[in-house]
Amino acid sequence: MLTESFAVAFTILLTIATSLPLGRYMARVFQGERTFLDPLLLPLERLVLRLTGIDPAESQDWKHYARSLLVSNVVMWLCIFAVVSLQKWLPLNPDGIGNLEPTLAFNTVSSFTTNTNLQHYSGETGLSYFSQLFAITFLQFVTAATGIAACVAIIRGLGGDRQSQLGNFYVDVTRATVRLLLPLAIVVGALLVWQGTPMTFEGAAKATTLEGTEQVIARGVVAAEVAIKQLGTNGGGYFGPNSSHPYENPTPLSNLVQTWSIAVIPMAMIWTLGAMLRRQRLAVVLFATMLAIYLPMVGFAVAQEGAGNPAIARLGADQSTGSMEGKEVRFGAGLSALWGVTTTVTSNGSVNSMHDSWTPLGGLMPLVGMWLNNIFGGVGVGFVNMLVFIVVAVFVAGMMIGRTPELLGKKVEAKEMKLASLALLWHPLAILVPTAIACHVWATTPDPGTALGWLENPGPHGFTEMLYEWSSAAANNGSGFEGLGDNTPFWNIGTGLAMLFSRYIPILAPLALAGFLARKPTAPETAGSLRADSATFGFTLWAVVVVLGLLMFLPVAVLGPIAEHLALGSF
Amino acid sequence: MAEHARRISIWDPHIVRQAVIDSVRKLDPRVQFRNPVMLIVEVGSLVTSVIWVQELIGGTGSPLFTGQVAAWLWFTVLFANFAEAMAEGRGKAQAAALRKTRAETLALRLREGSEETVPASALRAGDVVRVVAGQIIPGDGEAIEGVATVDESAITGESAPVIRESGGDRSAVTGGTRVLSDSLVVRITANPGSTFLDRMIALVEGAVRQKTPNEIALGILLAVLTLVFLLVVVTLQPLALYSGAAVPVPVLIALLVCLIPTTIGALISAIGIAGMDRLVQHNVLATSGRAVEAAGDVDTLLLDKTGTITLGNRQAVAFVPAPGVTVQTLADAAQLSSLADETPEGRSIVVLAKQFGIRARELAAHQAQLVPFSAQTRMSGITIDGREIRKGAVDAIARAVEGRGGILPHEVRAQADQIARQGGTPLAVAESARVLGLVHLKDIVKGGIRERFAQLRAMGIKTVMITGDNPLTAASIAAEAGVDDFMAQATPEDKLKLIRREQANGRMVAMTGDGTNDAPALAQADVGVAMNTGTSAAKEAGNMVDLDSNPTKLLEVVEIGKQLLMTRGALTTFSIANDVAKYFAIIPAMFILALPQLAPLNVMGLATPQSAILSAVIFNAVIIIALIPLALRGIAYRPLGAAAILRRNMLIYGVGGVVLPFVGIKAIDVVLVALSLA
Asked: For residues A558, A560, A561 and A567, what is the CA-based torsion angle, rounded to 10 degrees?
């Protein structure tokens, strides 16, 4: 346990330490300043901009920015829908994989366009190499870049003083892709190939096992896809079992590289904010506030998984290495717990263990990660989600110091509050209402097990399976709790819609909010104004996130994981 | 500050009685519609009551429990109504006091040279009336002829009469005030019903109360929280159904009411009305609630030097004799020249001279001829027993002395410059052609003002002193008073420019003013407090009027604005923080039958599921009543920096708001069990 805890602590420290220079690099990239990679990447960026006919000098206000974001996403959605629906006849399909059924295609395309990567298909048997590369991997780059672009635009809005321009969406997406994600993905991909992850266009390998039977071993363009899946908080695996598959994540070292890749850009984004707003202290406060939620979650999950499962212990199985059901021996309970928490707070969604098999309370942490969805969060969108809570915290704290509330010197008034409210309301709505519908359908269907075929484990665990699926869709996370028969029209269309709305409402509302704030004058900071970069404000923000999260989701937590945990004692 | 008859005790029996009646009357859904949080509680109460009746008739369920829940839900609404009615009642009491002054009066209207007696209510703007000693001024207006002393105590509570005269900055008169001596010809400027007094009454009564921008924004936050909790509770039924733990509807309603921010929802309008009310208690009238909020946001205060920072008059503080002249000689001459000088400066010279053993003398015994101050010579003095003693500005005395062949010694000139640099005014004294020396006149900074400015600085508010003095004098007084900045030789245009510049930098500016030439600046400022003694143009331009005409009041106005917002914020925080404990009371209670393993979640050890739910509902209702005094009085205000205030309030209302209900709910549970109510 001690070694594992050390490995967990080392991974976190390494990620935090490297996020700082990366964040500064990102700030330079998005502010058009010189960076050390310019000789290599600037020509590439110019080439892309020239080919696409984008005028880098053209700046957009929030409406134009939002329109560009939406239009490009709709176009991508349509193209990729066509690709996966026609992949049977497209090239690079050595294993002869068929087209996706329409509701599954809808779900899959919505999932990847929204940076969710919820997978109701199994990668190696559901998609051709062409689809993996040009549909999935392409979207994994571009949707991550979209999130980053939105965040950068919002940061510009917060820093604006009586101006309406937030930058150019296409330029930001290009820069995020070419100058951030691409170089990082190449490095991470190379490291993974070194550790044994395959990267080949050849079809599945055939091997004869010791028993003499023939085994088909899927492989393909894995390393490239895994690198960007982690860096872009995408999470959609090449193989069904995701990063617990030995080809996707072969060694403890590849596990370290991937855990780092999951969290580094979301963490760096906070430093980027600090650098772009020239408010380093604010970045420190935000970072610390997020850590103050993230670290206890990791600690709790590691402790729970490390302590083992009492139900299994009672069967006589040794639990000294922790609860190992559904976990990989090469990672162990501790690093699996770290991954599980990290992948859900960041809306990544890749897994290196099966969350379905976690202990009930340990398994509550990934749910909490998705319910909050703003602790570092998905690339770019993490801070965007946090902004909503910052607005609420600023509003309450601002009044408490005797001023009408200001966010970084800009008055927060009815219009801003409305937009923040929309985003604030949407998240619990997208989780609780569909879960309630699913529960209602299940509870009112006679013999639901055979009629619907959703749940393998009724009771609180089955409840958690459904709750997890909707949480994952609403948080644009994409991880699955499994144990849920989800490739049905109900789940395909339902979660597809949930992912789409949960992507665009929480981006567009804060984007508009930032647009409005940018137009307002910035009041100078005095001893009488609320300092968002103070420890007290950090605590206020922390309390707002924790209390609102608790109030929204405690009932479902009680009905699911907590009820399951408390029942463990009565076996 | 002056004594105020307007202070009303929090639990004034008349107001409480009326508020009780009003709180029932306010159950009207059309009234509740303004406040979505309380509307939901009312609907919940209604539904629970219906269920209770059904249970009573059908003999199903547990009518004792449902009945109690229904009763406490109704109490929640009634308590909220009571809070609002209390605040309105206090406003009405203020208004009634004001209205007394508006008793029907008769007016002497001047029309085409003749006078006619008409009731005051028949007067229209533009009419001209004569008001003689003993009469009540029939309406707001402007004195266009005459000088009179006026008793304005009806409005200001200040018993000392004030001077009103035509022309200049003291020409505005207020309806309902009484002329004590002489007479005035007044041009009426307001129609009946829209006079200053009428507007004031309407405002304090809350009749024309519009929600302020901050109230609207807070309303949105409260509405979205309500929606979130509605979502949580509505989805709970199907979720619970899956778990085989169907929850009775009254329990769901109880949970909903406990979760939605009823505490702040119930008190929000009371807080707003009470803020206005506190301002009235300070004898300041705001034209809108928005102005009160803006006062809390003020970053820059423009303060007139005279009257605000310094006492109105300069005083003699030292005699500085010329070379070869004794202090005694100078003091003697200065005293002689000031004996007949009734200006405060003159009197202060006589007082100072006394310290040098020079007693006041009877002028009648001497051959004395007074020389009054004239703008041409800029000197005054006395010719007594052949001695020609003059005092005046240094330059004027120098010219006069040189005209007689004398000379102003350069030492005296140097000392005069020295005095000016220190912020004083040098006054030269000469006898015939000989300069005797200087009197050092000094602006006296008001006691305690320096500390006030230090507090303001700690609160992040910048103070700017406005003065007509030269920069040297201004700088010295600014340093002595501890203001952050000053504007010397300021003209009204300079003031306006300064306000615009501050606003362009994103700052909110407050100022006081009384003259017509202050009107543009008053209108431009975010908070413009016009003095009641000022012109009606100034009063129209500002968004507040200080009935005491005390420019220092601006500081209190800022504090009241801040206190209003702080109260609102603190109670919002408290309201949300309370929910944590309520959850821990209700959630285990509602599922315990279907999921008995949840027993450990009952951290408060509440007796039964029913007692747990009832305790939470009762706490939720009672806390509203408990907080009414806080809402009306405002939370304790301390002039600290934002960081310290936030820390303090987060601790009290945030952390305290989490902890308190755990204790309160447990206590109520114990009582309920003791009374066998659950």
From this structure: 90
